[in-house]
Structures are given as structure tokens and as C-alpha cells.
Design brief:
By secondary structure, the protein is mainly alpha-helical. It has helices spanning 15-36, 41-68, 74-96, 104-131.
């Protein structure tokens, strides 16, 4: 898998959230580099945990604004976040128990999920948040 790039196509027009999305891309790229360099499992494990932790932090930011502005799509968006967190946490648990290995396929899954989530679900709240004064 090649490094992934942030594109303005993924912008939701809200600086704080765009910066968090860029950070997620950066962590994913660190995983891509580490995997391609056959980095020690401890470093891969640390990066996986960083991705999971930062995802939770980011999701909390989005959900905070959804609640604050009474975003009508909150429940569906929240479920998407929970599904992603569950998959990542399950994988990390299996990885640490040596029941799973980190592969390019997993990193591609994460990138595809992020791209689709940002370009789809996150774009849906973009106008709504900006109408409520967030930029």
C-alpha cells in the first residue's frame, strides 16, 4: 500500500475537524511506512493504539457538535463510529494476542473506511455545522 494523501476533496469546511482528519491520515501513513519497513511488533502495536485512541478523540469531537446543534443524523453517525471503534479494538486485541497479523489489506480497509466516512457521512453534517456558526 502506498502512502495516502489528504485532499481538499475530503474537507468538511470546519478547521478543527479537518485537522483531526489530517492527523488520522498521518497516523495511517506511519502504519504504512512501519509495515513496509518490517518494523517491530511493539511499534506497530503502539501505532495501532494511537490510531484507535485518536479515532475515539476525533469521534467525540464530532459527536459533541452533533449533540450541541441537535444534528438530525446523530444516531446513524454515532453507530458508524461505534462500528469502526469495535472493529479496530477487536483487531488490536487479536494482534496483541498474536491471533492476527497486520496486513496491507487491513490498512487499505481503514483508509477506505475513512475516505468513505469523511466524503459521505461527515460531509452530510458539514453544512449543518457551518449554519450553526462552526467554521
Amino acid at each position: 500500500m502506498e502512502m495516502v494523501s489528504w485532499s481538499s476533496d475530503y474537507s468538511v469546511g470546519i478547521a478543527e475537524i479537518n485537522e483531526q482528519h489530517k492527523k488520522l491520515v498521518s497516523i495511517l501513513n506511519s502504519l504504512v511506512v512501519s509495515l513496509s519497513e518490517f518494523t517491530q511488533d511493539s511499534n506497530l502495536s503502539r501505532l495501532l493504539k494511537e490510531l484507535a485512541d485518536y479515532s475515539v478523540y476525533h469521534f467525540q469531537t464530532e459527536e459533541k457538535y452533533m449533540k450541541k446543534f441537535n444534528y438530525p443524523g446523530y444516531e446513524a453517525h454515532f453507530r458508524e463510529h461505534e462500528d469502526f471503534k469495535s472493529k479496530i479494538i477487536t483487531f488490536i486485541d487479536q494482534y496483541e494476542k498474536k491471533e492476527a497479523v497486520l496486513t496491507v489489506d487491513l490498512l487499505e480497509f481503514i483508509w477506505e473506511w475513512l475516505k468513505n466516512h469523511i466524503a459521505g457521512s461527515d460531509k452530510k453534517y458539514s453544512v449543518f455545522f457551518r449554519e450553526h456558526g462552526l467554521s
